[in-house]
Specification:
The complex is a heterodimer.
Chain A: H1 15-26, H2 35-54, H3 61-79, H4 85-101, H5 106-122, H6 130-150, H7 158-182, E1 207-208, H8 212-217, E2 222-227, E3 239-245, E4 247-248, E5 253-254, E6 265-267, E7 272-278, E8 288-289, E9 299-301, E10 307-309, E11 317-323, E12 327-329, H9 335-340, H10 350-362, H11 366-379, E13 383-384, H12 395-403, E14 405-406, H13 408-421, E15 426-433, E16 436-437, E17 444-447, E18 451-459, E19 463-467, H14 469-473, H15 475-479, H16 482-485, H17 501-522, H18 526-535, H19 543-568, H20 574-588, H21 599-609, H22 614-629, H23 636-644
Parallel strand pairs in A: 13-14
Antiparallel strand pairs in A: 1-5, 2-7, 2-17, 3-8, 3-15, 4-5, 6-12, 7-11, 9-10, 15-18, 16-17, 18-19
Chain B: H1 6-9, H2 17-26, H3 31-42, E1 47-50, H4 57-68, E2 72-76, H5 83-87, E3 88-93, E4 98-103, E5 110-114, H6 121-133, E6 135-138, E7 141-144, E8 150-155, H7 168-171, E9 176-178, H8 185-194, H9 198-202, H10 213-221, H11 227-242, H12 252-268, H13 276-287, H14 302-311
Helix pairs in contact in B: 2-3, 2-4, 3-12, 10-12, 11-12, 12-13, 13-14
The chains are: A alpha+beta, B alpha/beta.
Chain lengths: ~650, ~325
């Protein structure tokens, strides 16, 4: 039989392994790719499975070629290209299914497995969390087990084969760690994730329509995580500032282009340092704690005190920030800014205007008007709810005088409306309020459900002062969080509406684990690497030093493993050792021997493939067979002499 | 196939070489199968030939009986064959006023049990017990069978109507199972030219004396099998038990059979020792009928056995 040209046929029992491997690597893509790709791959899988079950031959070549062409054509139609991220993944998935269809020899199986290993990587396009990593580890183990299986490996039942693969995976861990820690990090997303990768993420926007924040509050997704060095401040002081909305058109609040110079801040309390890890939201704001202290140079502070970065946040990022909880902001304010914050659309909400006008005339001191408005909210029969009734053409009038039920955005916008109508510059501030301390890792977790809107009014000699009308209506919202504030039975996402203790505990642990993963594994960037290296005694490592270090570490590991292997090697008997030397020399000259191959079989091949070695090898085989299989003591000298006569290197 | 060219493995002429060539001149193009049949005989086992009618099963049995000088009898198995038709009966002898045993056809040296799967299981087991025990018990009296005693059973592929396929436990009693298959092109041309081979078989004369065979069988049993060979046979048996390719592994009896057949194979090549090549050469014929492929529930395909051999390293 020839081995160089034809690969041995795949044993019947090996097919399910290859199937399982292909399924494990393609199935997770089902949720991300167009439906037709999934359907097509599924039907190809089914076809291949039936073919295996019936022990039928692979489809004829022209049909396979036609299928390949069809697949490429369909992908081209869908994506307008065969390359690039999504098209590439779809193509790989379909080819993986097609390969199963023509599975026949071991080489086909190896190709399918290799494709699987490659497909594994592509899953990181879609998710990089702990479940993905675990899933991929399992899939990689399965693929490795398949490789072991199709090569005859330990030739055991499935469980020992899987165990063998798992042992291999564990043995690879030291190398993985070394590569992970020392491989030069590339800043920016490794796979050039397109800008829109996170476009769908929820978060604040730069305008507020009725219901927009209430919608956000339905999401238990994490917005950012904060770590204070000591105890975090009281909940009711945690106002995380997002966009400030200063224009009202009768329906929506919008942010206007900035006006006026840099904000003037006077801090009245010491700086409070903290570290914030912000989930990607596709916007530029940082959601800093009011009021932000000194910011690093690449951050900006808008005239409305919103901290921003240069580029939209499309990746989870960690920022070191500081805040001063007591502050005075723009005591001297630009005249134009003050006027802008008094603007109201004409001829709307007459009742509310009339009320505000009556306050302006009765109460000369603006502070009194503020108190009056807050008192209205406190005593006017207002209720806090996530499901407020719909408002009509005159939303402020409707809300203030008839429905009286609303969410923070209703209270904030009604308050600002009343203030403006009564002649006090006021604006809506959106952001997040509060957060939940995870007792496991002491991170303060701020979710989308903590999204909030409050008001800011400008008073002479005091500057912009924060007023939160929601705190008056529902003190629990600010003191304890949204879960406590809402009446029982209001819809809230399951993730935050946990009233049972142990479930809460499980969630805290899971989130702490995720956070650790984000912080230490996904967040392991150039800086952290440099940090780690300098702590290990390699300061200022550039990529050249890194590469050298990497090589050195790998070499050390390799030597350790090799030494261990040598020590572990069972003592072989001298006949076997001499024979192994002979096989080794043959291998160097291009004739590989298989473990099942008899010496005579090998000799046949040597005669055919390496005829000039045949005479010398004939003697080796003869001496070896005598020593190993013959009666009487082994004639080692004869074998040694015969092996010594084998050329050491390839002879031409 | 894994087989190595024969000349390479041949160390010296064996006493059976003339028998082999004589038989090959009658049964054309089936030298390998003849050699296997002889190895089976020398290994002290029985042979099962499974194939379509008319491919030369009976001729093969005839030829071997002639060449080896064995007393031959042929039992055509039919559905109404009774155990006594095989073993013999006692009849009352009026002259001696006593029962006299009339030995059945089984009291021969080479039995051709033709189409064994046509008989009922009861009759089949009468033959198989005799094969196993080397003796027959009729009406309370145990009678030894002649030595050598060699059964060649033939079986048509069992999907034909009205057959009783041998159960696995009984298949295990045959040392080897071979298929003859259609002759190769040249052989079939020669066959067409020369006419039926049955008459040719009748003209053969014995090349050895049947009485020598037990001695030869002892020589075969003395062929040296080194520790490495024992390890290899063990690895093969273990392999069949643990791959998952087969429903269950080979029995210890099969392991002994492998070794015996490998010894005979080596002896036929004139060697005094067993080589791994011998084990590989006989393995498919000793092992295949004793195994059931897990995936099909039927006899493993020849390729499966081949792939299995490739998966076991030679120690």
């Amino acid at each position: 039989m020839k081995f160089r040209n034809s690969s041995p046929p795949l044993a019947y029992g090996d097919f399910p392994w290859v199937f399982a491997g292909a399924l494990a690597t393609t199935l997770p893509h089902a949720g991300h790719q167009p439906l037709w790709v999934t359907a097509m791959a599924a039907s190809l899988f089914l076809w291949a499975f039936l073919r295996w079950q019936k022990q039928a031959a692979p489809p004829v070549r022209w049909l396979l070629v036609a299928l390949v062409v069809a697949v490429c054509g369909a992908v081209l139609l869908q994506y307008r290209t065969l390359f690039g991220r999504d098209a590439g993944v779809a193509l790989l998935v379909l080819f993986s299914a097609l390969k199963l269809l023509e599975l026949k020899t071991r080489r086909d199986a190896v190709a399918a497995v290799t494709l699987g290993y490659f497909l594994l990587l592509t899953h990181y396009f879609d998710a990089q969390g702990i479940p993905t990593a675990i899933g991929l580890l399992v899939a990689a183990t399965l693929l490795t087990a398949t490789l072991i299986r199709i090569h005859g490996g330990p030739l055991l039942k499935p469980l020992p084969t899987l165990r063998f693969a798992a042992v291999l995976m564990v043995q690879a861990v030291p190398f993985m760690l070394v590569l992970y820690l020392l491989f030069p990090r590339i800043s920016g997303p490794l796979w050039g994730l397109p800008q829109d990768a996170h476009a769908g993420r929820s978060g604040l926007s730069d305008q507020m329509a009725p219901g927009s924040i209430a919608n956000l509050a339905m999401s238990g997704e994490i917005a950012f995580r904060v770590r204070f060095p000591g105890r975090p401040p009281e909940r009711n002081r945690l106002y995380w500032r997002g966009p400030v909305l200063d224009s009202y058109d009768g329906k929506n609040w919008r942010a206007l282009p900035p006006m006026g110079g840099a904000p003037q801040l006077t801090f009245r309390s010491p700086a409070l340092a903290y570290e914030s890890t912000v989930e990607p939201h596709g916007r530029r704001w940082l959601l800093a704690l009011d009021a932000p202290g000194a910011l690093p140079s690449n951050f900006g502070l808008s005239s409305t005190l919103t901290a921003t970065i240069r580029e939209p946040l499309i990746q989870r990022q960690r920022f070191s920030l500081s805040a001063h909880l007591e502050y005075a902001f723009n005591v001297e304010e630009d005249q134009r800014v003050r006027e802008r914050n008094l603007q109201l659309p004409a001829r709307t909400n007459p009742q509310a205007r009339a009320l505000a006008e009556s306050w302006r005339q009765a109460l000369p001191d603006p502070a009194q008007r503020i108190d009056k408005a807050l008192a209205l909210f406190a005593n006017g029969g207002f209720a806090y709810t996530l499901t407020p009734p719909l408002l009509g053409e005159q939303p402020m009038d409707d809300f203030l005088f008839s429905t009286k039920r609303g969410f923070c955005e209703h209270f904030a916008s009604a308050f600002v409306f009343l203030m403006r109508a009564s002649g006090i510059p006021a604006r809506v501030v959106t952001g997040y309020q509060g957060g939940e301390l995870n007792p496991v890792d002491k991170f303060l977790v701020v979710r989308q459900s903590d999204a909030h809107a409050w008001a800011e009014v400008w008073l002479a000699e005091k500057g912009w002062v924060r007023v939160d009308p929601t705190a008056v209506v529902s003190p629990e919202r600010i003191g304890e969080g949204i879960t406590a504030a809402l009446p029982e039975g209001e819809p809230l996402p399951a993730a935050i509406q946990l009233r049972s203790d142990w479930l809460r505990d499980v969630r805290f642990r899971w989130e702490a684990m995720n956070n650790a993963w984000n912080q230490y594994v996904l967040g392991y960037n150039t800086e952290r690497q440099r940090d780690l290296l300098s702590r290990m005694g390699f300061p200022d490592a550039d990529w050249r030093n890194l590469a050298a270090l990497l090589a050195a570490a790998c070499a050390t590991l390799f030597i350790l493993v090799a030494a261990w292997a040598v020590l572990q090697r069972p003592r072989r008997d001298p006949v076997q050792r001499l024979w192994d030397i002979a096989l080794h020399r043959l291998r160097r000259s291009g004739v590989n021997s298989a473990p099942w191959e008899t010496p005579n079989h090998l000799l046949n091949r040597v005669e055919a493939e390496l005829p000039q070695w045949a005479p010398a090898f004939t003697e080796v085989v003869s001496a070896y067979l005598d020593a190993r299989y013959g009666p009487g003591p082994a004639d080692l000298n004869r074998l040694r002499a015969a092996v010594a006569r084998l050329p050491r290197w390839r002879t031409l | 196939m894994l087989n190595v060219k024969m000349p390479r493995l041949k160390a010296a002429d064996s006493p059976f070489d003339p028998i082999l060539s004589a038989a090959s001149s009658v049964i054309l193009g089936k030298e390998h199968e003849i050699r296997l049949a002889l190895a089976c005989l020398l290994g002290g086992g029985h042979l099962l030939i499974e194939d379509l009618p008319g491919v030369g099963k009976t001729t093969l049995a005839h030829t071997l009986a002639r060449l080896l000088g064995l007393k031959f009898s042929r039992i055509q198995f039919t559905s109404d064959l009774l155990p006594a038709d095989i073993t013999g009966v006692s009849i009352y002898d009026r002259n001696q006023a006593d029962f006299r045993f009339l030995p059945g056809p089984i009291f021969s040296q080479l039995i051709l049990a033709d189409e064994i799967n046509r008989a009922t299981p009861k009759t089949q087991s009468a033959l198989l017990e005799a094969m196993e025990e080397g003796q027959v018990t009729v009406e309370g009296e145990t009678r030894p069978l002649p030595d050598p005693f060699f059964v060649i059973a033939t079986q048509n592929p069992s999907h034909q109507i009205g057959t009783f396929p041998l159960p696995e436990s009984q298949l295990d009693r045959f040392l080897m199972r071979i298929e003859l298959g259609y002759p190769a092109r040249n052989a079939e041309r020669a066959l067409l030219a020369a006419g039926s081979r049955r008459e040719a078989a009748d003209t053969l004369t014995a090349l050895i004396d049947a009485a020598e065979i037990p001695g030869l069988q002892q020589q075969v049993a003395a062929v040296y099998a080194s520790d490495a060979i024992l390890d290899y046979v063990y690895a093969l048996i273990q392999g069949t038990r643990h791959t998952g390719e087969f429903r269950h592994g080979l029995s210890p009896r099969a392991g002994l059979g492998l070794l015996a057949a490998a010894r005979a194979w080596a002896w036929l090549a004139g060697r005094d020792r067993v080589l791994p090549d011998d084990v590989q050469a006989i393995f498919p014929f000793v092992a295949r009928h004793r195994l059931i492929a897990s995936h099909s529930g039927a006899l493993p395909r020849a390729e499966d056995i081949d792939a299995f051999l490739r998966s076991i390293a030679i120690p």
